[in-house]
Design goal:
The protein is an alpha+beta fold. The chain is built from 8 helices and 7 strands. α3 runs parallel beside α7.
Length: 231
């Protein structure tokens, strides 16, 4: 269900907000989603703002929305549940969350244009924008760049065989990607709870993770790490 939620909702609410809206997990979760997108089989599509960890917008009223489907559903639901409840329900699934202007910098209209765009945004560009993330080595944007370089450098992450392991461990997604003699191991904690590691850490090179260092005995909330195993 977690994976279906991810791959079927690129033009719906921002995935970071849909999985866990708690701001303390925002950027580590955005990086975990990047790991899934770029290490599992298939053609990756990166939707605007996904590479920054953009989240759902703070729309204040139905007048802020432009999506025809959202407006139609609101008109139907408000008859049954009232305007406030109908608006909350629409916001839970509106596609307009992913259609606001790209947050280029901390500026008027997020640096997208000098005139008011077709749909408004909020103040999130003050803390999440391309200009700032280009300069921050640990940003979501630079994490995506590292992942893309890694994927291009190792064909196993593109064309390799996929083997899922630890299938019975709830909330853990772990798999190998193999191509010839190259073997990679990806482990992802899909919850906000710390998880005790079964056995020792993988034996090999820790290529990339959304945490700066590895803990031998546990996986932290939404921790995702790519290992290159010794052949």
């Amino acid at each position: 269900c977690w994976m279906a939620l991810y791959f079927e909702n690129h033009d719906n609410p921002r995935m970071v907000s849909k999985v866990d809206p708690d701001p303390q997990y925002r950027f580590v979760l955005a990086k975990l989603l990047a790991v899934l997108l770029l290490t599992l089989p298939g053609t990756p599509f990166i939707y605007q703002g996904q590479e920054l960890g953009m989240v759902n917008k703070a729309f204040r009223s139905i007048a802020d929305l432009r999506d025809v489907e959202s407006l139609n559903l609101y008109n139907i639901w408000r008859e049954a549940m009232g305007e406030e409840a109908a608006f909350r329900r629409v916001l839970a699934g509106s596609r307009d969350h992913a259609r606001t202007p790209m947050q280029w910098r901390n500026a008027a209209y997020t640096g997208f244009s000098e005139a008011a765009p077709w749909i408004g945004t909020d103040d999130d560009c003050k803390t999440c924008n391309v200009e700032d993330q280009r300069q921050a080595g640990d940003s979501v944007l630079n994490f995506y760049r590292q992942l893309i370089r890694l994927r291009k450098s190792h064909p196993a992450l593109v064309y390799g065989e996929t083997e899922f392991v630890q299938k019975k461990t709830r909330g853990l997604l772990a798999y190998h990607r193999r191509d010839g003699g190259a073997v990679f191991y990806v482990e992802c904690n899909l919850s906000r709870e710390k998880r005790k590691r079964r056995g020792k850490p993988p034996e090999g090179l820790r290529l990339l993770s959304n945490y700066p260092e590895s803990k031998r005995r546990e996986l932290r909330p939404y921790e995702a790490t790519i290992w290159q195993l010794r052949s």
